[in-house]
Amino acid sequence: MGLVAGSLPPSRLLWQRVGFAFLLLCTLLIVVPIIALLMKIIISGAPAISWEFLSQPPSQAGKAGGIFPAIVGTLYLMVGTVVFSLPVGVLAAVYLAEYAGQNWVTRLINLAIVNLAGVPSIVYGLFGLGVFVLTFGFGMSLLAASLTLACQALAVVITASREALLAVPQEYREASLALAATKWQTVRHAVLPQALPGIVTGAVLAMSRAAGETAPILVVGAAFFLPALPHSPFDQFMALPYHLYTVAAHIPGVPKQTMWGVALVLVAVVLSFNSVAILLRWRARRRKIG
């Protein structure tokens, strides 16, 4: 008979407590630095936040004025990345999870997807420069940047969506097929609604990564100083991560609170999108339970 937790020998109970303490320590080593960094960003960046800072274009090469064009450009970039990556990623995940057989071709595709997640971001930037900017003729534009980041986000979206689809119990598929539904009807009406929370998670990760990338957009469309807003997908744009990089590394005399203010706005934008996605995922789970 197995021993219950209360009847463990003292030596095993000691090792159990040591193991729990070690896990707690590992968790604190991850959480505490993140909380400290967020507090530093909030404390140092809050004095720079004002209505003028959020609603005015930059001036004096970023030393004065606001960051409104960078905020709008970042929002456009996040939305564009999801628009281009989510449909392709979800459909690819549906094929891999529901239609593709377990053979060497499928294993090769899965290996390629895993490798894509580890490719340096600057490589995606050079790919976007060669394909979207030069070959397709989109130029240095918001469209080229969105497509480049969408290619980078595909691995995350496909992986998250595929795992969400595989997590749906097989009974849902069997019940749907038993009611004379086709394979596609089963996937569309029985599987995808159950996998929606996981798919939303993939979209959130894609948006968050798009909001913080600097290297890819540096070579495909982000502008160093552009007070005007983009009027079409073929215009250049400003973005918060690139603006933060330039004011911190290449513009002397920029007040430090301005740099921290840009960082605080970037974190707030990402957290706002994540909050909306978390709300959608929560509603989808409630609907699934109900």
Describe the protein:
This protein has 290 residues and is an all-alpha fold. It has one domain: MetI-like (MetI-like fold, Orthogonal Bundle). The protein is built from eleven helices and two strands; from the N terminus they run H-H-E-E-H-H-H-H-H-H-H-H-H. It has helices spanning 10-45, 51-55, 68-99, 104-117, 121-135, 142-166, 170-178, 183-212, 215-218, 240-249, 256-289, and strands at 58-59, 64-65. It has a two-stranded antiparallel ribbon with strand order 1-2. Strand 1 (58-59) and strand 2 (64-65) form a beta hairpin. Helix 3 (68-99) packs antiparallel against helix 8 (183-212), helix 5 crosses helix 6 and helix 10 (240-249) packs antiparallel against helix 11. It is globular, with a radius of gyration of 23 Å. The mean pLDDT is 85.
Which helices and strands occur, and which strands form pairs?
Layout: H1 10-45, H2 51-55, E1 58-59, E2 64-65, H3 68-99, H4 104-117, H5 121-135, H6 142-166, H7 170-178, H8 183-212, H9 215-218, H10 240-249, H11 256-289
Antiparallel strand pairs: 1-2
Helix pairs in contact: 1-11, 3-6, 3-8, 4-6, 5-6, 6-8, 7-8, 8-11, 10-11
